Amino acid sequence: MAAVGSGGSTATAGPGAVSAGALEPGATTAGETAHRRLKYISLAVLVVQNASLILSIRYARTLPGDRFFATTAVVMAEVLKGLTCLLLLFAQKRGNVKHLVLFLHEAVLVQYMDTLKLAVPSLIYTLQNNLQYVAISNLPAATFQVTYQLKILTTALFSVLMLNRSLSRLQWASLLLLFTGVAIVQAQQAGSGGPRPLDQSPGVGLAAVVASCLSSGFAGVYFEKILKGSSGSVWLRNLQLGLFGTALGLVGLWWTEGTAVARRGFFFGYTPAVWGVVLNQAFGGLLVAVVVKYADNILKGFATSLSIVLSTVASIRLFGFHVDPLFALGAGLVIGAVYLYSLPRGAAKAIASASAPTSGPCTHQQPPGQPPPPQLSSHHGDLSTEPFLPKSVLVK
């Protein structure tokens, strides 16, 4: 029976086995084949998850009949996310309840300052999730999907301001292209003049999606900064976020819809479609965080672009959405911008390895007697390529 190692080579105990070093030139090992397969499975999962969340929310919010309270859906998603992370931590402690309780007491209560730091991103994430429901309720799914890519712009700007990152010229050009594409889509939306439901307001939807993009960019970069400055596991940090998110979500529920929820019930208007939205929102980010380690940034750019196309096609079939040349132009610019923005990140890895100290000319020589500088990560601190990151940190 073959065993696949972490390096992708295979070893067999039986006679006649071929070692990795004896492979023909150009041949691929079973590990490489499996990794390539997982990479494209990851791409498919990212595309489906990106598109399905927007479409499912839009579908659930436009169904005839009683409309569920969006604030309760946000709270339920936070509860399910927190429980999932708690179960994962329980598994990491090999099912030992005592060890888990001691670990949580130390991490959450004793180190309370680290816990309190997460109150800020948790508040913003809760606001962002509620704003998404407002935006999708007032904008066509395809329009929202295109406009929501502004979060790439806000995340990049906050990364420059808060993490002192630098962007290449191509990245700045792609951000300008992204803004132009979104502006064209919004101009098309404002000038369409077609019939729309009386309870939908494109202006409110645009304000909500812009506010959601701003909060997404700031919270994602802030959370990344916290992750870099602490040794806690990401599952623990997500559990802490879930605790704050549930509490803050309940406060928002009481403040905005408390009377109505008390009168009609917490689960008023819940249907299988609504539960699908809640589960997608709760587990989608964790799922993407697990599988994204198999896909590089270019594939993530492809996933975002394909999800926009998928959302548009599905909106035509499900909601009678009409694609005119202006929308197609704006969406095409956004898709191209997303792809171009992802390219320099992959190229940066090659540049980083090529700039490592060598014996060749034109390289920086280390002074005698001094230790070599520490090797930088190939992704330059970009946590989006790390496994198990929350959805909001991943720019998708």
Question: How does the SSE layout of this entry go?
Answer:
Elements: E1 3-4, E2 10-11, H1 30-62, H2 70-92, H3 97-110, H4 112-117, H5 119-138, H6 141-147, H7 150-163, H8 169-191, H9 202-228, H10 234-264, H11 272-291, H12 297-319, H13 325-354
Antiparallel strand pairs: 1-2
Helix pairs in contact: 1-11, 1-12, 2-10, 2-11, 5-9, 5-10, 6-12, 7-9, 8-13, 12-13
Which properties best describe this structure?
two-stranded antiparallel sheet, mainly alpha, single chain, 396 residues, 13 helices, disordered C terminus, globular
What would you say this structure looks like, in words?
With 396 residues, this protein is mostly helical. The chain contains 13 helices and two strands; from the N terminus they run ββααααααααααααα. It has a two-stranded antiparallel sheet with strand order 1-2. The longest helix is centred in the first third of the chain and has 33 residues, at 30-62. The radius of gyration is 23 Å and the shape is globular. Residues 1-23 and 348-396 have low confidence and may be disordered.
